[in-house]
Design brief:
The chain has 406 residues and is an all-alpha fold. The chain contains 8 helices and no strands. Helix 5 runs antiparallel to helix 7. This is Coiled-coil domain-containing protein 121.
């Protein structure tokens, strides 16, 4: 046997040994056909190829099926398409093996001829012995058998080469589609990232604005609350002063009433005293007249009587004038005091109303603060917004404040 024929035989046997089993080929083809049937026109990863020769009829199996990884159609091709580095390395190795296989098939198809001249060169017919002739015959028989096996192998390899070329073309098509989808997904990912960054920047701006607005409202609320507290304190001081003045005016009105009563009593007492004195003087005069009946009064008695009458009249007139003067003065002062008392009462009622309004404002501010605090606690406690903040009823307008029971 020549070295060249031995080498071709060894390569043919290696190629036959490299062929996969029939069961493995059937399993891979069934999976690939099922994948192509489930492929929709919009989601198909590869175009359908022409009909392949049946491996069962030929008795051979495609070698390149072991180098391709059948990919099922993803649920969402626009989002779940990913090409891994491991798959790329495996595809590169498979492509190299397929190229070697095609080259080997082409070489064997071109050089599968029995080389009898090679045997004749080493084993010349005129110098052969009986054993050498027998060896030459056996070598020729082996060469013929090897030639027949090579032809059969070439017959089996031809459809495999065609199928391998089709698979390589399909693989190139799939790789191009994968590259297209990869570029599309990369573009979509970049756009999504940019949109996310824009939304995040917008959120940060809105958050900063809300925080600034919150600080402004907090400072404004604190200033207004302090101003309301100062105003409430001033109103309370004014109300206490007016209450004191009202109490003083009540004392003055009582004094005026008491003075009226005392003046009337004094007037009545002086009138009674005057009547008594007059009666006494009249009794004395009548007694003198009775004693000196028929006699003329002396000049001294007349002058004394006239002096007493004059003194009594003068005393009565002075008493009347004093009483009238005091009465007129009190009559003049009374309307002013009454008007002032009414003004104080009106002021007192207005201050009461203002106090109630201030209490209501204070209650409203306190409720607002508590409501915001409870709402903030509820948001921090349950971010999904479950539950509702508790509400407090508005107290009646006529109720008194707990801070100022007056």
């Amino acid at each position: 046997v020549s070295p060249r024929g031995a080498g071709n035989r060894a390569s043919g046997e290696a190629a036959v040994r490299a062929l996969p089993s029939v069961e493995e080929v059937r399993r891979l083809r069934t999976a690939r056909q099922g994948t192509l049937r489930g492929c929709e026109p919009q989601r198909c990863w590869a175009t359908p190829r022409s009909a392949e020769p049946s491996s069962e009829k030929l008795g051979t199996t495609p070698v390149m099926t072991r180098y391709f990884r059948v990919l099922p159609a993803p649920p969402n091709s626009s989002r779940s398409l990913m090409v891994s580095r491991k798959g790329q390395n495996r595809d590169t190795g498979g492509k190299q093996s397929a190229d070697k296989f095609v080259k080997l098939a082409e070489d064997t198809s071109n050089s599968l001829q029995p080389d009898v001249n090679f045997i004749n060169t080493f084993l010349k017919p005129e110098k052969l012995t009986r054993v050498e002739k027998r060896f030459k015959g056996r070598a020729v028989m082996e060469m013929m058998k090897l030639d027949k096996a090579i032809k059969e192998t070439r017959t089996r390899l031809e459809p495999l080469v065609v199928e391998t070329r089709q698979l390589l073309e399909e693989k190139d098509h799939v790789q191009k589609e994968n590259q297209f989808f990869q570029e599309y997904l990369t573009k979509q990912t970049e756009e999504s990232r940019q949109r996310t960054e824009k939304l995040w920047n917008y959120y940060l701006q809105q958050s900063m604005k809300i925080e600034q607005r919150k600080q402004e409202l907090t400072s404004k609320y604190a200033n207004k609350n302090s101003a309301l507290k100062r105003e409430l304190l001033e109103k309370e001081n004014t109300l206490s002063n007016l209450n004191k003045q009202l109490e003083a005016m009540r004392d003055i009105s009582q004094e005026i009433k008491k003075t009226h009563d005392e003046t009337a009593a004094k007037k009545q007492a002086m009138l009674v005293q005057f009547v008594q004195d007059k009666a006494l003087l009249e009794a004395q005069l009548s007694e003198l007249e009775a004693r000196q009946s028929g006699k003329k009064l002396t000049k001294e008695l007349k002058s004394k009587n006239q002096a007493l009458e004059k003194a009594a009249k003068q005393h009565v007139s002075e008493l009347h004038s004093n009483i009238n003067r005091q009465h007129q003065q009190l009559q003049k002062e009374l309307p002013e005091l009454v008007q002032k008392c009414h003004q104080l009462e009106d002021t007192h009622s207005q201050l009461k109303k203002k106090q109630q309004l201030l209490q209501q404002e204070q209650w409203y501010v306190e409720c607002l603060r508590r409501g915001r605090h409870q709402l903030q606690e509820r948001r921090n406690r349950c971010p999904n917004g479950q539950g509702s903040p508790k509400t407090t009823r508005n107290p009646a307008l006529g109720t008194k404040s707990k801070v100022h029971p007056k």
